[in-house]
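Our example pasted here:


***
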Amino acid sequence: MEIKEKTIEDQKVAIMNYKGSLNDMEVLIGKLSGWLEVEEIETAGKLFAIFYNNPRTVKENEVVYDVGIPINPELDPDETEEIRIVTLIEHTVLSAIHNGSMDNIQETYNTMAEYSIENKYDIIGSPKEIYIKNKYEVDDENDMVTEIQLPVIKMG
């Protein structure tokens, strides 16, 4: 697996904050997709989730995460009760591609964490998963492609 440092430019995103089960992500994605379609919002990237605690270690209904998608920065759509428009400011990440189902994604996270320690990076924020090929776009979960981004600063 290749792990690389990259700079993520400012991004305008439509985002939904949520605390509950990871299984509810499908409903959130449906709401976000429906809003994009109704409002005719042009997207500028792939669907993503940012996790504020580890879904594998907290109780099922206590996962805290955002679901979002980058949108055309020139647009200024109205927010709803559930969907906010925010700008994620430029930041540095360690990035790696996880191929396959989510069942073994923790292994990719572990490898990235080890890499960050060995290469003197400090992880300074919540991980982001970008769903390049999500389960709705593939017939077999083994064909899924997820980019994991860990916000970092170089320590030395």
Q: What stands out?
A: The CA atoms of residues 4 and 139 lie 29 Å apart.
